[in-house]
């Protein structure tokens, strides 16, 4: 098999995060590789979502949050730049529950590009179609683009959320437990989609589902009490973990 050349797209160094007095992340160092899927695993409350949100500065919206350390994305220190809009264009996000706007499928996907100033109808049509195709939902919705997105099933809505993220032409897509609210068939569809998406995107995904991490990710980071205990190729994390705490977690002994 052809050896994939690794190249770091997100470099996190000595990252600490405080919610007021309470420290939630402790000295996190992580180098996330381009066009790979990186899974963040660990027991509830260990800081996975907090960490994910630091990557596109979503924590900035929370009062009393203090962050130290560096996150460099594509050679730019994101906490030293003030262009959060540019950052969130480059680093898109998909949440646990589908959060489509109460408008048509078309308008949901076209929303971001329109906000960026694209008005040309033909251009928007192409972006909407390409994004829905890339999110593996085009065939299911192509005849009902002008109907409400909220009339779709949960699994379909989540794929439209992914299309909405893709429409912004990001490099990186963050996913916070994107399948936890979905049935097993919809979950498999999203997993297959994520696997295909890494040809074009870097994906960082929080998951509680160990099998999911093992199935879809290239690298896995195991978080515990706000620290990264172990970060390695997913195969290693699940077959020959170096730290006893990782082994206990992946074999289901706690969490
Ligand atoms: N807005 C907030 N204000 C104060 N503390 C918070 C806030 N959000 C999270 N925390 C705390 O930070 C710690 C890490 O939470 P976080 O949600 O990042 O963990 P998690 O690993 O994603 O958990 P889960 O798997 O349950 O979603 C927890 O102790 C949590 O209570």
Automatic annotation (TrEMBL):
Q: Which Gene3D superfamilies match?
A: P-loop containing nucleotide triphosphate hydrolases
Q: Which UniProt keywords apply?
A: ATP-binding, Cell membrane, Membrane, Nucleotide-binding, Phosphate transport, Translocase, Transport
From the Swiss-Prot or TrEMBL record, state where the protein is found: Cell inner membrane
One annotated GO molecular function: ATP hydrolysis activity
Q: Which SUPFAM superfamilies would you find in this protein's record?
A: P-loop containing nucleoside triphosphate hydrolases
What domain of life? Bacteria
Per the record, GO CC terms? plasma membrane
What is the topology of this protein in the membrane according to its UniProt annotation? Peripheral membrane protein
Identify the residues that the record assigns to the ABC transporter domain, covering every copy: 10-250
Biological-process GO terms, alphabetical:
phosphate ion transmembrane transport
Q: Which NCBIfam families match?
A: 3a0107s01c2 (TIGR00972)
What's this chain's function? Part of the ABC transporter complex PstSACB involved in phosphate import. Responsible for energy coupling to the transport system.
Q: What is this protein called?
A: Phosphate ABC transporter ATP-binding protein PstB
Tell me what organism the protein belongs to. Answer: Psychrobacillus psychrodurans
């Amino acid at each position: 098999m052809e050896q994939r050349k690794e190249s770091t797209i997100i470099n996190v160094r000595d990252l600490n995060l405080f919610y007021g007095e309470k420290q939630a992340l402790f000295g996190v160092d992580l180098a996330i590789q381009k066009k790979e899927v990186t899974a963040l695993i660990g027991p509830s409350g260990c800081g996975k979502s907090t960490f994910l949100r630091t990557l596109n500065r979503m924590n900035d919206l929370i009062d009393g949050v203090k962050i130290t350390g560096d996150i460099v994305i594509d050679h730019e220190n994101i906490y030293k730049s003030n262009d959060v809009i540019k950052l969130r264009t480059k680093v898109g996000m998909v949440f646990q529950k589908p959060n489509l706007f109460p408008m048509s499928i078309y308008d949901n996907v076209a929303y971001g590009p329109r906000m960026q100033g694209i008005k040309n109808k033909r251009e928007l049509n192409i972006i909407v179609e390409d994004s829905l195709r890339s999110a593996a939902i085009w065939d299911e919705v192509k005849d009902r683009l002008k109907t409400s997105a909220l009339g779709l099933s949960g699994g379909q809505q989540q794929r439209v959320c992914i299309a909405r993220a893709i429409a912004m032409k990001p490099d990186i897509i963050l996913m916070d437990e994107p399948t936890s609210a979905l049935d097993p068939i919809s979950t498999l569809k999203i997993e297959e989609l994520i696997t295909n998406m890494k040809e074009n995107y870097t994906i960082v995904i929080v998951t509680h589902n160990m099998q999911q991490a093992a199935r879809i990710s290239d690298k896995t980071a195991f978080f515990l009490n706000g620290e990264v205990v172990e970060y390695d190729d997913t195969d290693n994390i699940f077959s020959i973990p170096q730290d006893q705490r990782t082994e206990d977690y992946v074999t289901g002994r706690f969490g």
